[in-house]
Specification:
The complex is a heterodimer. Chain A is mostly helical. Helix content of chain A is 43%, strand content 0%. Chain A contains seven helices and no strands. In chain A, α3 runs antiparallel to α4 (73-86). Chain B is mainly α. Chain B has one domain: Cytochrome c-like domain (Cytochrome Bc1 Complex, Chain D, domain 2, Orthogonal Bundle). Chain B contains five helices and four strands. Chain B has helices at residues 2-33, 42-50, 63-67, 99-114, 120-132, and strands at residues 53-54, 60-61, 75-76, 83-84. Chain B is globular and about 55 Å long. Classes of the chains: A mainly alpha, B mainly alpha.
Chain lengths: 169, 134
């Protein structure tokens, strides 16, 4: 009996600890994904988009926003696996990324995170001049204003817009 | 000491051999088409690197648009704004160090600028140009 209790307790500690680690930061750990995808742009978190979006993304890498982004076929398989495993509809999400992905209609398959309805709503009020300025340049440049973008947090209190300052809705 | 220098020598030789052996294989490929082939040429490579073309995105670009023509400094992807590490292997030891990566970027970047893959001659010339600069 004691042994069973011990095993149960140990098991819950392991589960809790691994969960806790996951919640602390959502920084991308997959080096293959980062190496292949973030050489041209920020490594966007898989949690933003559902599996159908990532499948379409990986199926159309030869014309990835007008650029050939194909790489080694066996590496493409591994990156797809990683994306599908971490897609918004593959696990229980939380925080901003959960809210963003929840706003995607079931009938749409967005490829750009900037096309997500909640993304558009959240950025609607940002003046254009702050986006096109040299330090930001484009709306997809998350890290320019979201100081916690790499950690996958995107908290409002961590927004710092260059030449403007904190953002408060 | 002798052992260390020998080790360093082997290390640097094996290191340089990735791009050198790739150039060698490209040259064999060119010779199949052109038996009189005299070798890759940095001037031809420079023209490939610096001349402008309507690229894959419909915009007039050259390799210089993103890489700049100073290979010791960072470039910037003009479409995403992401920084690109220097092209010179002397400044950036990771550059031209892995065959898989060399082939990947040549294939993609030729498509970006020329809307087609480069020929063996063009690839050899452009690598020769990159290696000829500081």
């Amino acid at each position: 009996m004691n042994r069973i209790v011990f095993i149960l307790v140990a098991f819950s500690i392991i589960v809790f600890a691994s969960n806790y680690e996951g919640k602390k930061s959502n920084g991308i750990q997959n080096s293959l994904y980062l190496n292949e995808c973030s050489s041209c742009h920020m490594g966007f978190q898989a949690e933003f988009l559902p599996q159908r979006s990532w499948n379409k993304m990986m199926d159309t890498l030869d014309d990835h926003f007008g650029v050939d982004a194909t790489f080694d076929k066996s590496d493409e398989v591994k990156v797809r696996e990683y994306l599908l495993k971490n897609a918004s509809d593959a696990k229980r999400g939380y925080g901003e990324m959960k809210e963003f992905s929840s706003s995607i209609s079931r009938t749409s398959t967005p490829l750009a995170i900037t096309e997500i309805p909640k993304f558009k709503r959240e950025h609607r009020e940002v003046p254009k001049r702050l986006i096109v300025q040299k330090d930001v340049q484009r709306i997809s440049n998350c890290m320019a204003c979201h100081t916690d973008a790499k950690e996958g947090l995107y908290k409002e209190r961590n927004i710092l817009i260059p030449n403007f300052g904190r953002w408060d809705d | 000491m002798k052992l260390i220098s020998l080790l360093l020598l082997t290390l640097s030789l094996s290191y340089a051999s990735v791009v050198t052996s790739y150039l060698e294989s490209l040259s064999i490929e060119v010779k199949k088409e052109e038996p009189n082939f005299k070798g890759f040429d940095k001037q031809r490579g420079e023209k490939i690197f610096t001349s402008k073309h309507i690229g894959n995105k419909g915009k007039e670009i050259s390799c210089v648009s993103c890489h700049t023509n100073n290979f010791t400094q960072n470039g910037e992807n003009i479409f995403t704004g992401k920084e690109i590490a220097p092209l010179s292997p002397k400044t950036n030891p990771k550059r031209l160090a892995k065959l898989k990566t060399i082939k990947k970027w040549l294939r993609r970047n030729f498509k970006d600028v020329y809307k087609r893959e480069g020929t063996a001659l063009e690839k050899g010339d452009v690598i020769t140009y990159i290696l000829s600069k500081d």
